[in-house]
Design a protein that fits this description.
about 300 residues; 15 helices; single chain
Length: about 300
């Protein structure tokens, strides 16, 4: 009995990992922030639940389908070879059908319980991430990280559209923040794993352009991120507290990136920069939520 319970628990854990839960958490945080701003701090509980459920399912579907497409590539990389599909703990068809099922559930929930535009936008995000980024760009161009960032930057727009059924300037500003944040966030890890990407035949920027060019590109994106993050203040949707702390966070991120760029790449420096980049994004969107010029709250 204990062996059976352990086996079921392990398989459940593998299914969860297929869906990339850490990415889904970031998706849900940024989606909720978009909803909160769009609703001026007054959003019905049922709309929050259905939007986050549908968006979370879309994100999980993207993760499962990404694992399915990349299963052979993952075998050639130390970072990913222990995943469930490369190790044959799960069958590829299980990941495929899980991704398809979650995509359909996501579309149905968002279409019928939120609004059609939100459903189409979430479906387009999954399509872009799986087909445009994973299937095409990741295997053909070093621009994959930058162009592929479109999918990762859409969650706050989805949250905004769920409330307004339209796209507003604050939603586009949040999209731009996430779009610019993603390349330096990913390249820190890609620099550390450049040899693995080369062996796997993936033309990531550190493979095609080298370390120095990648570090310079990271610095440029991180510099641009500071003024872009302040657009939320100039659009008058957040207060001066956000303005000051977003600049402080941005400067701290930039200083860490400069330090990373000046020194040899190590596991410790990569973990520190990669971890801080996640802290930076969560901190920024938490500040947007806390300091937004909204009145009201969740309507039960």
């Amino acid at each position: 009995m204990n062996a059976t319970i352990t086996a079921v628990r392990d398989q459940a854990s593998d299914f969860v990992e297929l869906c990339k839960p850490r990415i889904t958490i970031l998706v849900l945080v940024t989606t909720f922030t978009g909803m909160w701003l769009a609703g001026n701090g007054a959003v019905t509980l049922d709309l929050i639940i259905f939007t986050l459920l549908g968006t979370g399912l879309a994100s999980s579907a993207s993760g499962a389908l990404n694992n399915y497409v990349d299963r052979e590539v993952d075998k050639r990389m130390a970072r990913t070879r222990m995943r469930a599909l490369p190790c044959s703990r799960l069958h590829p068809q299980q990941a495929l059908w899980l991704g398809v099922m979650f995509s359909l559930w996501s579309f149905a929930i968002l279409f019928y319980l939120v609004n059609p535009l939100t459903a189409y936008l979430a479906a387009a995000t999954t399509y872009f991430y799986v087909m445009i980024y994973t299937v095409w760009l990741k295997r053909s161009s070093p621009l994959c990280t930058e162009i592929g960032g479109v999918a990762g930057a859409l969650p706050p727009v989805i949250g905004w559209v769920a409330v307004t059924n339209d796209v507003g300037l604050p939603a586009l500003a949040m999209f731009l923040i996430m779009f610019i944040w993603q390349p330096p966030h990913f390249w820190a890890l890609a620099l550390l794993r450049a040899d693995e990407y080369r062996q796997a035949g993936l033309p990531m920027l550190p493979v095609t352009n080298g370390q120095q060019a990648t570090k310079i590109r990271m610095l440029l994106y991180t510099i641009v991120l500071i003024p872009v993050s302040t657009t939320m203040y100039w659009l008058q949707v957040v207060g001066p507290t956000y303005l000051v702390l977003s600049v402080v966070l941005g400067l701290a991120y930039l200083l860490l990136t400069i330090d990373f760029a000046r020194k040899p790449i190590t596991h410790q420096s990569t973990r520190r920069l990669f971890g801080f980049s996640i802290f930076y994004l969560l901190g920024l969107f938490t500040l947007i939520f806390v300091d937004c010029r909204c009145s009201g709250g969740i309507i039960w």
